[in-house]
Amino acid sequence: MNAADHGPEQGVSETAPLLGPGARHDNSDERPHTAKKTARNLLLLIAVVIVAVDFGSYLSYAPEIEIFETIICKRLHGFEKGTIAGQHGGSISACKSDDVQAELALLVGWMSFCNQVPGILLALPYGFAADRLGRKPVLLLSVIGLILEEAVIRFICWKSDIIPIQAIWATPLFQILGGGPQIATSMAFTMISDVFPLAQRSSVFFLLSAAILLGEILATPLSAFAMSWTPWFPFLAGVVFEIIGLVSAFALCETMPSQPDRPDHDDAPHQRTQTRSSGEHSKLSTTIMQFWPNFGKDR
């Protein structure tokens, strides 16, 4: 009997796979299509989340300034509308007087400063959390913290007769839950990096940035148009759009790469520690580099 009589059994050993190469690649043509479809769906959902939250922020920014100005004007002059004598003669709107504008600038300036502090202090902790717990939980926490902050600001403005307007300086404390808009932006771009190959990331980032910019362009005139009736309408509508973004974020799938299988070698603990450390530093550096893009308005 020659070797040809053995047929398929030739070369079979204890290390040979039970399934032949044909059986292992039956579904190989379907996997790339499924992966591309999943990546497109993820990009669409992330775009909805970011654009909705950013659109809500820009929609409510100008009304927020006007409401702050009205509250300060009422506190300093006792009325919201009317005129007062100007320094150089004539009359000016009471809310455009120097004392009102000076206090408004102080209020908005300190608010902008306080809004940046949580993102700076919490970038590293939430970067590590994203590599251990996942990107989606951190993104959800960030959006929830932003919505809570915006809701409390509106409550303070509504009850400004009993709550000093300076209380808004404490609202960035809600950004401790998730790290604020900088962390949310980093998580969104990190999730895209997880599912798109390197060759496609630049074009995908460009599309996402274009969608964000388009939302900002549309939000500004819509806000001005709505303010012709009352500034409170776009001021409250901004939170509604942010809630829409939060609901969309719940539909996102987790994109954190799975951990490699545990090695069986004698030096497994050392290799595992070294691999985990290098992977975490690589992912964390990506998160920190993406930390600075603007997400929503800067107060």
Automatic annotation (TrEMBL):
Q: Which PANTHER family match?
A: FI18259P1-RELATED, ZGC:174356
- Any one GO CC term of the record: membrane
List, alphabetically, the InterPro entries matched: MFS, MFS_dom, MFS_trans_sf
Q: Does the keyword Transmembrane helix apply?
A: yes
Instruction: Enumerate the subcellular locations listed in this protein's record, separating them with semicolons.
Output: Membrane
State the name under which the record lists this protein: Major facilitator superfamily domain-containingprotein
Q: Return the Basic and acidic residues bias intervals.
A: 23-33, 261-270
Domain Major facilitator superfamily (MFS) profile, chain residue ranges per copy: 40-299
Q: Pfam families, from UniProt?
A: MFS_1
Tell me the GO molecular function terms: transmembrane transporter activity
Q: Where is this region: Disordered?
A: 1-33, 258-283
Transmembrane domains' residue ranges: 41-61, 104-126, 138-156, 168-192, 204-226, 232-253
Membrane topology per the entry is: Multi-pass membrane protein
Please name the Gene3D superfamilies in this protein's record.
MFS general substrate transporter like domains
Major localization listed first in the record, in broad terms: membrane
Which keywords accompany this UniProt record? Membrane, Transmembrane, Transmembrane helix
